[in-house]
Amino acid sequence: MELRHTQREKELQQVIGQTRLVVEAEQQSEVERWRRLAQGKTRELEVFHLELDSILDVLREFQRQGVVIPAPGQASAVPFSWRT
Questions:
Q1: Is 72 domain-assigned?
Q2: Poorest-pLDDT segment among 11-15, 16-20, 43-47, 80-84
Q3: Which H or E run contains 77?
Q4: Contact predicate 77/60, CB 8 Å
Q5: H or E stretch including 68?
Q6: What stretches of the chain show up as alpha helix (H) in DSSP?
Q7: InterPro entries attached here (predicted)?
């Protein structure tokens, strides 16, 4: 009887150990999935930031040249005008 109890306890400990390994592997997989997702979003933000910087560079060049761009909603037949 005692031997059966010891054997059953040993089996249960093995099942618990295997279950922990499976859970840890699943958690690690989930962490890795979220890490890859975050890295992808970071790359997207970097590209967006570069695009915004390019737009600002163009606008600064327009400003340097004296180009006036009307604000949205302003009625104008000409999309922009040159300052004289």
A1: no
A2: 80-84
A3: none
A4: no
A5: strand 67-68
A6: 2-65
A7: CEP162-like
